[in-house]
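Why DUF4139 domain-containing protein? Reviewers of the renewal asked for a concrete example.
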Amino acid sequence: MVKYLLLTFSLLANILAIPSEKSIKSEIKEVTVFQNGAQISESSSFSLNSGETVLTIRGKSPYIDSKSIQVKGYGEFTILSVNVMSNFLEEKINSSIDSLSSILNEEKISLQKLEAQAEVLREKMTVLNTNKNLGGQNNGLSMVQLKQALDFFEKEITSIKNDEIANRQKSNATREKIQRLEKQLNENANKPITPVNDIIIKVSTDKQVSGELSISYLVSNAGWFPKYDIRAKDISKPLQLNYKAEVWQNTGNDWNNVKLKFSNANPQKSGVVPDLKKWDLTYARLTTFDQNGVRNIGSVSGTVTDSDGMGIPGVNISVKGSAIGTSSDSNGRYSLTLPSSAHRLVYSFIGYRSKELIISSDLINVIMEEDIQSLDEVVLVGNGGRQFKTPSLQIRNSNSSKPIISESLELETTSIENQTTVEIAVDKPYTILSNSDKLLVDLKKYELESTYEYFAIPKKEKDAFLMAELVNWEKYNLLQGEANLYFEDTYIGRSILEAESLKDTLPISLGRDRSIIIEREKIDQNATKRLIGSNYTESRAYKITIKNNKSSEINLKILDQYPISIVSDISVNLLRSSNGNVNKETGIIDWVLNLKPGEQKVIEFAYEVKYPRKEKVVLDR
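Here is what the prediction returned.
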C-alpha cells in the first residue's frame, strides 16, 4: 500500500512540475531605425500563477536576429530562458492573393456574360437567315416593300456583325487577363510558406503575481537613408536645408503609433579594432589590384528581378562604403544619385543572395538568385533550452501590386548625440506599415550660414555651377546623402551632400546656371611646332570667353591647366596666364572674376613644351 502511495505522489509531483503554457501579447512601443536594420522595443503585461510558466508571444517578424534578443522582467518572477521558434501554423492574411482571387472571379463572370451574349447574337442571325425568303414563293413584293425589307435586313445584320466583333474583342481581352491572373496566383501558390517567429519565455514564481516584460531585438529588412532638400532663394540669403529620412520596412509586423529614432550606427559592422598585418612586397606581375569601375557616372537606375523576370520590391540598393542608398519600388525599379567616390553597388534582400556590382554604366539591371539555407535558432538566456531550425525564407511584398506612395510629414524631432553615434528622435508617435513603401519623414530644418560662388572648368564642362560653402556645418550631424536642389523656387536637379568631408567649410553644388555663357577655344595661330637641334618645341594657347547674362553681379572662379612633366627630357614652360593663380606642382590655373550684369571678359593662357625629336607627346586632351 505504501508503494502505491509513493508512486501516486511521484506521478502527482511530475505532473505538477510540468510548466503551464500561456499566450501573451506584446506591443511595439519604440523603433530605432538603422541604415540597414532596426531595433524593436516591445512591452507586455500579464499575470502568473505559482510555478513555472512558458509565455509565448506569437506572430513576430521572421527576420529577427535571435542572437540580439534581450528580455527584462519587472515583478516577483525569474526569467529562466528565452527562445525564438519558427511557426508555420500561424495564419497570415495575404491581401494580395485575396485581391487577385477576387479580380479573377469577376473576370470569369464577365467572360460567362460575354459568351452568353455571343450565343444570343448567333440565335438572332439564325432567325434572320430563316426568314430570308421574302414574301414566299407565290406572293411578290412591291418595290417599296422590297426596299423596306432589304433596309431592315441590312440594318439588323450590320448591327449583329458589329456586336459580334465587339464581343469577340472583349472576350479575347478577358481570356488574356484571366490567364495572367491565374499565372500570378499559381506563382504565389508555389512559393514556400513563410513562417512567423514566436518568442518563448520560460519564467518561474512561487506565488500568484502580475508582471511586465520589456523585449528588444534587431530585425532586418528595414532601413533608412538620409535625404535633403536644399533651397537657395538668392545668393544674398542663407541656405535652407531640410533634413529628411527615407524610411522603409517589410519586416512582417506593422509599426503602429510607435516612437521613432533614426540612428547613424551600423549594428551589422564589427566593433573590433582592425589588425595591421605584415606587408609582403612582391613583383608587380604577381600583384593583383581591385578594379574600381568607371568613374564620372552621376546617377544609376535599373530594375531588380527574380529568375522568372518578376520585379522584386523592397530590395536594398546601397553605394558600398557610403550612406547613399535607396530601395526598389513595387515593380522592382530604382534610381540613385551617386557620389564621386562611388565604385560599387550592393543589392541585398532577405531570401536572395546579395550582389555586389561594379558601377560600369548608368543603367544596371540585376537578377537576384534565391538563397536556400537554414538558420539555427539558439538559446539566449538561462539553461535547459532547445535548438530549433528555421527553414529557408523567401519573401515577396504582399502588396507588390500597390503603387508606391511617398509621404512627407513635418514632425518635431530631437537630436541625441551619444558617445559613438547620433540619433534623431521623432517626438510624436508615427505609423509605418510593413509593405516596402518608401516614406519621407521630415527630421530637421536649418538655415545655414553660407557663402556663394560660381565655379567652372570649361575644359570639362561649359556650364557654370553655383557652389555654396557652408560654415560651421559640423554641429548639424549631417550624413552623406542625396539632395534635391531648388534655386529661386525652381527644381534644378539632384546632387550629393558630402557630409564626410574633413574641410572647415562644406561645399554643396547647387547645379548649373545657364545664364552664364562660357566658351573655351584653342588659338590655332599660336599652335606651332619647331625642330631645334635634337628637340621639338611645340606650343599651345587657349582663350576662354565668359559673359554674364544674369541681372545680378556674380563672382566666378575658372579652373584650367597646363601639363607638368615627369620626365627629365621633357620641359614645360608657361608663357602667359592672364594674371591667374598658378600652382606649379599641379599645373592648375585659377582665375577669380567679378562680372557685372551683361559684362563679358576674356582670359588666355599659353605654354610650350620641349621634347626629344625621337619621341611624341600628347598636348591636346
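The domain at 517-612 is CATH 2.60.40 (Immunoglobulin-like). This is the kind of structural detail the renewal will allow us to pursue systematically.
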